[in-house]
Design brief:
single chain; alpha+beta; Double-stranded beta-helix; six-stranded mixed β-sheet; 8 helices; 26% helix; globular; disordered N terminus; antibiotic biosynthesis; oxidoreductase activity; oxidoreductase
Length: 335
């Protein structure tokens, strides 16, 4: 009989500008290590918001799935409403979003536009790229504090709106996003998840969903900037790509765009400011093959930087939350 995997004394390394790192000794079975240290690792995530575990040596999707399952005994969530396609592996484990390697994925909170979103994100690196490809993280509390108060107040009052246009050419189709293909099932899904929908004459689906932009953390009660206002904005799309999309689909046919909750456009300078605030608070630790990272999806935004060379990051989502179960009420926009 094999001896039990020993518990370790967690010593999380903190370096300025880098995500917290926990280094473990080589030779552990990742799933057994995860089972033995699940509580301590989750406590570290609660303390730091995100922790990258180095030394487990994750090697393949099956091993990643087994490790994720030990870390979240409540199970992994299915992926719904993604704005780009993912490749499913097994047991709730997915590839990272299909996104051009030379285009960054700006800071965001996963599925913050959905009615149900993951409270915890799990990432596993099976192949680190030769250049770039960092999954950065940024503390949503600090980001909120750095955004001008007048902007915060407006978003707190109105929320934000995500407009999507589903077609066969760009991004996820509605079949991929909702997991259903029959029109009646799509409409039922939208009604159940507080999504406005409209079918175009050519069969294209357009949707709009309003969500809060600032929420209180479900455990600590601390206020967090929680949305995808900047990432899914037309002003974050590379200019040449945006021009092409507007030319082909029209200004209202972009695959995604964000607005204030009352439907008014968000100015380009506000999106630029939000991305500048994110950049000022980004923590970066380059991936190494075999790494594991856990991220509190409410407290920490995450990003994916442009890269060169093959890159394989597997993703799991867990601890489902309902956006309207979080306390979003404030009277005066106070911090």
């Amino acid at each position: 009989m094999s001896s039990p995997t020993p518990r370790i004394q967690f010593d999380v390394e903190r370096q300025a500008g880098h995500a917290p790192i926990l280094t473990v000794e080589d030779g552990h079975d990742p799933a057994r290590w995860a089972e033995a240290n699940r509580g301590a690792l989750r406590a570290a995530v609660d303390e730091y918001g995100a922790v990258l575990v180095r030394g487990l040596g994750l090697r393949d999707p099956a091993e990643v799935a087994a490790t994720f399952q030990q870390l979240v005994p409540g199970g992994l969530m299915p992926d719904r409403e993604a704005f780009a396609a993912r490749q499913p592996y097994l047991d709730g484990v997915y590839s990272s979003l299909t996104w051009p390697a030379n285009q960054p994925m700006c800071m965001h909170h996963e599925l913050s536009y959905a009615l149900e979103f993951p409270g915890l994100m799990l990432f596993a690196c099976l192949q680190a790229p030769s250049v770039g490809g960092v999954t950065g993280v940024a503390d949503a509390r600090a980001v909120l504090d750095a955004i001008p108060l007048d902007i915060v107040r407006r978003f707190e009052k109105e929320g934000w709106l995500l407009a999507r246009s589903y077609n066969e050419d760009i991004g996820a189709t509605y079949e991929e996003a909702f997991g259903v293909s029959d029109r009646a099932d799509v409409e039922n899904y939208c009604r159940a998840h507080k999504i406005e929908f409209e079918w175009q004459g050519d069969g294209e689906l357009r949707t709009r969903q309003r969500r809060p932009a600032v929420v209180r953390h479900p455990v600590t009660g601390q206020r967090c900037w929680f949305n995808q206002v900047a990432f899914l904005s037309e002003w974050t799309i590379a200019p040449e790509v945006r021009e092409y999309l507007v030319d082909v689909y029209g200004p209202d046919g972009l695959p995604f765009n964000t607005r204030f909750g009352n439907g008014e456009p968000i100015e380009e300078d506000i999106i630029a400011l939000l991305n500048e605030v994110y950049e000022a608070h980004t923590l970066r630790t380059p991936w190494e093959t075999g790494d594991l990272m856990l991220v509190d999806n409410v407290r920490m935004a995450h990003s994916r930087e442009a890269y060169e060379g093959p890159r394989e990051i597997l993703v799991g989502m867990a601890e489902p939350r309902n956006i309207f179960d979080l306390d979003t009420h404030t009277q005066d926009g106070s911090r």
